[in-house]
């Protein structure tokens, strides 16, 4: 798996919460990505790209804090009011605010409104003046931003990294070194995938016990990948996947879904029970299998169906998804909580399936039994597992092994050892 093996910080006590606040397109997501060390928030030149508040741990000089990237203020669409409400809540929860502005635009009324909001909440704030690398195009100097009424000003370039060290030193100044512990690597990482408005963020919010992703009737509301660490798993809620990209932003969100899956162990594909299995759902399922991740399917919004409709829907699912008969399909309602505890246990169980390892002795014994019972088209002279994530088996044979015989082997593997929620792959070496 292409996962970053660098251990992530975990906090010995309640961590310091630092919130990035600012107008759209001042560079908050660029700074956020630089501080956490890898791109998570979608960044582009399109104002209002980041809509969710995303919490990630940051470690600096042996000290750790939580950094939150807020939705851009003044996004100019019908979600803007909701984003402002979320922003006010986040400011109240934060310990330190980074009010981000930029010298290219200068001091604007919206910067002053944000400063007033921070002062009303009684929060300490640093003013982070971005884009100092573009001083030739600037309409102001960093000193102008003292008018916002905060004493600590940090000129930076989020793109080039200038001034970031001084900013981080100031953030961690009052954090004790024992703030950092290491995360145990026993939590399943789950990427939540699905078409827009299938209920992915509602499932995430239910597991978290609080809203961590914007939930709205507007399809495609969630555009970022949002990590939430729970007691027993780490959930990644990804942007909805659409067939055609209406704009560059939708394309970025699609790439984010694939990228998040690569950093996960299990793909949770959410299907809307009101709509049924769509051909795009099948493409998403195939994407999970192609990436070699565990597959769990949540049949969401089951509460809207009566008993007869449920029976018809389950038959529809069985027919449409018969090629992935081995994948658990869990009827749930993120709204009422129906089936959600069971879904949670299924996700935890999927990790054992995707990492299951069979000894060479057991694998060879199985293939001997199978070939005696049903002769293969070509002689198989060795068979054993070569990796997991996903479970992958090497077949050494005198000739090509057709798909029907591979299915025969796969069914036997599942019957004997389960491989719960895991795709099984084969590599055939022909002598």
Structural class: alpha/beta
Do you know the CATH topology of the largest domain? Rossmann fold
Report the helical percentage. Answer: 25-40%
Strand content: 15-25%
- Can you identify the CATH class of the largest domain? Alpha Beta
Cα shape? elongated
Q: How is the main sheet built?
A: 6 strands, mixed
Tally of separate helices: 11
CATH architecture of the largest domain: 3-Layer(aba) Sandwich
* H/E element sequence: EEHEEHEHEEHEEHEEHEHEHEHHEEHE
| End-to-end distance | 29 Å
Q: Which strand order spans the largest sheet, edge to edge or round the barrel?
A: 3-4-2-5-6-7
CATH level-four homologous superfamily name of the largest domain: P-loop containing nucleotide triphosphate hydrolases
Total discrete domains = 3
What oligomerization state is this entry in? Answer: single chain
Number of strands: 17
Flag low-confidence runs.
Answer: 1-7, 39-51, 181-185, 214-225, 238-255
Mean pLDDT: 80
* Rg, nearest Å: 25 Å
Outline the structure in words.
The two termini are 29 Å apart. The protein is elongated. The model is unreliable at 1-7, 39-51, 181-185, 214-225 and 238-255 (pLDDT under 50). The strands form 4 sheets. The chain has a 6-stranded mixed β-sheet with strand order 3-4-2-5-6-7, sandwiched between helices. A 6-stranded mixed β-sheet has the order 10-11-9-12-13-14, sandwiched between helices. The chain is of the alpha/beta class and 431 residues long. It folds into 3 domains: 9-182, 3-Layer(aba) Sandwich (Rossmann fold), CATH 3.40.50; 190-354, P-loop containing nucleotide triphosphate hydrolases (Rossmann fold); 360-430, GMP Synthetase, Chain A, domain 3, CATH 3.30.300.20. It has helices spanning 28-36, 80-93, 109-120, 164-172, 200-208, 248-262, 279-290, 307-320, 340-354, 360-373, 403-417; strands at residues 9-11, 17-22, 54-60, 63-69, 96-102, 124-130, 153-155, 180-182, 188-194, 226-229, 233-237, 266-272, 294-300, 329-331, 380-387, 392-397, 425-430. β16, α11 (403-417) and β17 form a beta-alpha-beta unit.
């Amino acid at each position: 798996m292409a996962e970053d093996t660098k251990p992530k910080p975990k906090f010995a006590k309640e961590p310091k919460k630092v919130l990035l606040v600012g107008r759209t397109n001042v560079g908050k997501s660029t700074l956020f990505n630089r501080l956490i060390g890898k791109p998570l928030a979608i960044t582009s030149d399109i104002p209002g790209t980041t809509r969710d508040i995303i919490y990630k741990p940051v470690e600096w000089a042996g000290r750790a804090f939580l950094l939150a990237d807020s939705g851009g203020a003044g996004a100019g669409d019908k979600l803007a009011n909701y984003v402002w409400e979320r922003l006010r809540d986040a400011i109240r929860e934060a310990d330190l605010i980074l009010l981000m502005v930029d010298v290219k635009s200068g001091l604007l009324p919206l910067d002053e409104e944000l400063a007033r909001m921070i002062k009303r909440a009684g929060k300490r704030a640093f003013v982070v003046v971005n884009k100092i690398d573009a001083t030739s195009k600037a309409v102001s100097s960093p000193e102008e931003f003292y008018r916002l009424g905060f004493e600590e000003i940090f000129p930076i370039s989020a793109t080039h990294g200038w001034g970031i060290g001084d900013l981080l030193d100031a953030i961690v100044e009052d954090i004790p070194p024992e703030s950092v512990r290491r995360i145990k690597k026993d939590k399943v990482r789950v990427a939540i995938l699905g078409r827009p408005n299938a209920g992915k963020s509602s499932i995430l919010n239910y597991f978290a016990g609080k809203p961590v992703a914007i939930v709205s009737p507007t399809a495609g509301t969630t555009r970022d990948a949002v990590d939430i660490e729970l007691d027993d798993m780490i959930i990644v809620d990804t942007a909805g996947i659409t067939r055609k990209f209406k704009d560059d932003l939708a394309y970025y969100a699609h790439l984010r879904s694939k990228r998040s899956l690569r950093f996960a162990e299990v793909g949770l594909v959410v299907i809307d029970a009101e709509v049924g299995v769509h051909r795009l759902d099948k493409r998403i399922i195939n994407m999970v299998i192609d990436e070699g991740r565990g597959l769990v399917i949540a049949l969401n919004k089951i509460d809207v169906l009566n008993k007869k409709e449920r029976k018809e829907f389950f038959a529809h699912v069985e027919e449409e998804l018969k090629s992935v008969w081995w994948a658990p399909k869990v009827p749930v309602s993120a709204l009422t909580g129906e089936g959600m505890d069971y879904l949670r246990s299924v996700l935890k169980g999927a990790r054992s399936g995707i990492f299951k390892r069979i000894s060479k002795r057991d694998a060879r014994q199985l293939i001997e039994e199978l070939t005696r019972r049903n002769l293969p088209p070509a002689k198989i002279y060795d068979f054993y597992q070569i990796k997991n994530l996903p479970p992958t088996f090497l077949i050494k044979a005198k000739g090509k092994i057709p798909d029907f015989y591979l299915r025969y082997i796969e069914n036997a593997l599942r019957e004997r050892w389960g491989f719960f929620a895991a795709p099984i792959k084969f590599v055939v070496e022909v002598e």
